[in-house]
Amino acid sequence: xxxxxxxxxxxxxxxxxxxxxxxxxxxxxxxxxxxxxxxxxxxxxxxxxxxxxxxxxxxxxxxxxxxxxxxxxxxxxxxxxxxxxxxxxxxxxxxxxxxxxxxxxxxxxxxxxxxxxxxxxxxxxxxxxxxxxxxxxxxxxxxxxxxxxxxxxxxxxxxxxxxxxxxxxxxxxxxxxxxxxxxxxxxxxxxxxxxxxxxxxxxxxxxxxxxxxxxxxxxxxxxxxxx
Length: 227
Hints:
Layout: E1 6-9, H1 15-26, E2 30-35, H2 38-48, E3 53-56, H3 62-72, E4 77-80, H4 97-125, E5 128-133, H5 149-169, E6 174-179, H6 196-207, E7 218-220, E8 223-225
Parallel strand pairs: 1-2, 1-4, 2-3, 4-5, 5-6, 6-7
Antiparallel strand pairs: 7-8
Protein name: SDR family NAD(P)-dependent oxidoreductase
Family: Belongs to the short-chain dehydrogenases/reductases (SDR) family.
InterPro entries: NAD(P)-bd_dom_sf (IPR036291), SDR_fam (IPR002347)
């Protein structure tokens, strides 16, 4: 019997992260659900299924990320979903720089920190999949959204990080891509029309790419779109 592959999902206690973890679990993956609050992560894992694992992971703290690696062990796939939107309603001239700094710390540096910790195991194994959650608000083709300037800029940086990681791991068996799920109804966007199930399907599809699939691209509803 084939041993199931393991996927780690950050920010997995609710929203797109939880829906993605549950979709992967249904597809036969071994799933590790990570969240800042250990109890929330464990509750989400219990909701997902008897073999799911919940661990604490604060992407802004190096010691927390290291502890999560110890708890989860090497993983085959990483979904970098943990993120914040703190500056709705501001514009680039009025947004407090402290809010921008806090946003970048989670959305960009946190994602980078987690990738630096977990992706080298994939490179050594010769196989891996990484998906970073992005947004159309951070793309130049669509235009950065000025009413959430720190968030939008953070997603532009996530797009850049995706291309950097993909270039670094090219030819190793690891594929690194970003997914723009669109406006999705979550606590961050309670009035959005998109569902977390649809967003999760997009992420799972990117994780299921064949070995000769694309790397370093942005997906939207299963199609490659421009940065």
